[in-house]
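Usage

Read records sequentially. Each one opens with the input sequence:
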Amino acid sequence: MPSAAPSIQPAAILIAPHPILRRKTRPVRPEDAATLRELLPRMYEAMYLAPGIGLAAPQVGLDLRFAIVDLHENDIRAPITLINPEVIRESDQRAAREEGCLSLPGQYAEIVRPESVRVRYHDLDGKRHELDATGLLATCLQHEIDHLDGVLFVDHLSALKRNIIMRKLAKEQKAKG
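and closes with the structure output:
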């Protein structure tokens, strides 16, 4: 009888205000490849289970500059692994979109960001890519790159709105035990 495929243990997602979420990450180096290859399936599993459309290394406790994104539009998975990503162009036009975050579960706010961006990154094989994005993908890429710089989506809000969200999150997390 064939054995069942081993299940992947999803990576644990850190919840704000965990201090790792506020640290700027270091660039991924070639010697980090084995760590990434081991962790990526667990990160994708955690993101899909949440469910979410993006997850950055600090959210799972790593100080490495990489993130994953998958909008899974029309229920089709199209994962993108972004190693050492950087925004190299952003539009002057701004767009408001409601954002949430797996590290701030249940918290949402309208955030204004550039409407379109060009992001340069490397894939797991070291190949360099540039991606032009608009709409939800542009927002998601900027959100995940912010994580790599220790920035949370609530940092784009006024201090009052940010404090309200953070207090609400703390209260909900305390109630969960």
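Summary fields computed downstream for this record:
- The chain has one domain: 19-176.
- The chain has three helices and seven strands.
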